[in-house]
Task: structure prediction
Amino acid sequence: PFAEMELDLPGEDEEREMYYDTKRILAASGYERYEISNYAKKGFICRHNVGYWTGKEYLGFGVAAASFHQGIRKCNQLSVEDYIENGHRFEENIMLTKEEQMSEFFFVGLRMIKGVSERQFQGKFGVSSDEIFGEIIKKHIETGLLARENGYISLTDKGLDVSNYVLCDFIL
Result:
């Protein structure tokens, strides 16, 4: 039914103006942008989301809950009946390759306004971000979509506007 509805949506230029108005209003009200789509007052960021964007491990309990531990993504039984019958047995286990882990570390880390720590990348993977993503980083710095500052690589304001375009380049 939703697909059949005729919606009166704003045009692209009006949508961008609404976006910038929202950004301005939130900043004037004491909210800081800490990731692509979230703002918070100081000390009240969503630790759950930040955990995802910074590669923290997490455990999920219950039906269809997801976990990420030691480079393995797991999903519990998808139906209540199966979960009750089989207990905490994973329905799915996906072992991420080193390349997938590096890629994910970068493209989800870039969701954070602070960006990706080059030191953390080196420490976690034993190679520099330039060894893996050097050409991509260089291209987006030259076009003004990424910045490198104080050991972090981050999206610029212009890069935030086209973040999906930039993030896709980091998928190996």
Q: What stands out?
A: The first helix runs from residue 12 to 28. The chain has eight helices and eight strands. The mean pLDDT is 91.
